[in-house]
Amino acid sequence: MTERSVIIHPPKQRAGRGVWVDGRLVGQARSLGELTTLLNKSGWPGLDEVDVAESPIIEWHGGGPEVWTPWADPWPANPSTAGAKPP
Questions:
Q1: Most C-beta atoms within 10 A of its C-beta, which of 21, 24, 29, 47?
Q2: Is the pLDDT of residue 84 over 90?
Q3: Mean pLDDT across the chain, nearest whole number?
Q4: What's this model's pTM, rounded to 2 decimal places?
């Protein structure tokens, strides 16, 4: 049986975190919810956000499940500030 892997790369400005499943890039996630959706669509069905945050199989680089931006504040909620640089 082949061992499966999930690697979450460090966050990048406005791009989120790269999500690699079994050696292939499956997308970018900007939240735990987006990551959970990506994993469910990528052959890891039935996971919820708690499963994803606590899974010992998921390898987090550049911060754990609470880190989604390269700066301290969360993603801008207002699209007009999406291009603004973080403080």
A1: 29
A2: no
A3: 85
A4: 0.77
